[in-house]
Design goal:
Layout lengths: L1 E2 L5 E4 L4 E5 L13 E6 L5 E6 L5 E6 L4 E5 L4 E6 L6 E7 L5 E6 L4 E5 L9 E3 L6 E7 L2 E6 L3 E6 L4 E6 L4 E6 L5 E6 L3 E6 L5 E6 L10 E4 L4 E4 L5 E6 L5 E6 L6 E6 L5 E6 L4 E5 L2
Antiparallel strand pairs: 1-2, 2-3, 3-4, 5-6, 6-7, 7-8, 9-10, 10-11, 11-12, 13-14, 14-15, 15-16, 17-18, 18-19, 19-20, 21-22, 22-23, 23-24, 25-26, 26-27
């Protein structure tokens, strides 16, 4: 699931399809009324999406080991890259003008693809992970990755350096803070940690939700004032970033796993997606 500053919502599913919705036109009784476009090309489940800053293109990855670059308006693929030896778990844009797609896979590699090149080969392969790469976040010349091997890796591509922090539990989600000083890390011990990017120390932790079996992603919202995560019991939890206290808990997705979250940067709204096949848009008071 990805947000597009927030007029529309893009979602990927285990039914192999990608759907673009206008949440304003949808209703609880007829959610399909907000459907704008359906994108079909994947042969297996869709596991992650990333959208360019201008909302004109998006990338998708999934169980078919491929990385697709799409044109939003025409609903056609512009590029199809192959090379990963296992399912592709995560994807993000980087580089000038979102000219690079970065993908992380079950094969323990991160691959960088040039959107402007005619070559089908990656421009760089990062092979330091010892297990599946579950999440990544690209900011400027830096790539933060989280792996099932329990390590968070920070790649500084400009300096050609890598910094590794041992978290000790399989990582399901990573996101840098807006100021670039810390990384929010979710793990399979039902804990979310705020890690200092410079020295690897834990600044704060967030507990209360359940996350031991599924890949559940957390995110920052309201100018990094809150941490939000789904839970395996279908509830949505929100914590105060600095104090680490639960400030809200919402029931959602019919008690089933709430796996993905995205905050709108333009308005006080956020969306959650669950294994019940629904995307829910929430408003802040």
């Amino acid at each position: 699931m990805d947000d597009v500053e927030w007029e529309n919502i893009l979602s990927g599913s285990s039914d192999r399809s990608i759907r673009l919705y206008n949440p304003i036109k949808a209703s609880a009784s007829t959610p399909s009324s907000g459907l704008i476009q359906t994108y079909s090309a994947h042969g297996y489940e869709v596991l992650d999406l990333a959208v360019t800053d201008d909302n004109a293109r998006f990338a998708s990855v999934g169980g078919d080991r491929q990385v697709f670059l799409w044109d939003v308006a025409t609903a056609k693929t512009v590029k199809r890259w192959t090379g990963h030896a296992g399912r592709v778990n995560c994807v993000s844009f980087g580089g000038d003008g979102d000219g690079v797609v970065v993908s992380g896979s079950y094969d323990a590699t991160v691959r960088l693809w040039d959107c402007k090149s005619q070559s089908a080969k990656p421009i760089q392969v990062l092979e330091e992970s010892k297990d599946s790469v579950s999440s990544l976040h690209v900011v400027g010349h830096e790539i933060v990755t989280g792996s099932v091997d329990g390590r968070m890796r920070l790649y500084d591509l400009r300096m050609g350096m890598i910094h590794v922090d041992f978290v000790g539990q399989p990582i399901t989600s990573v996101q840098q803070t807006r100021d670039g000083n810390a990384v929010l890390v979710s793990t399979l011990d039902s804990t979310i940690r705020l890690m200092d990017k410079g020295n690897g120390q834990m600044l704060q932790c967030y507990r209360g939700h359940g996350n031991k079996d599924y890949r559940i992603r957390s995110c920052l919202g309201l100018a990094d004032a809150v941490v939000v995560s789904g839970s395996e019991d279908g509830e949505i939890y929100a914590w105060d970033l600095l104090e680490g206290k639960v400030i809200d808990k919402l029931k959602a997705h019919d008690g089933k796993v709430a796996s993905a979250l995205a905050f709108s940067g333009a308005r006080k709204e956020w969306a959650s997606a669950g294994v019940d096949g629904t995307v829910v848009v929430w408003g802040m008071p």
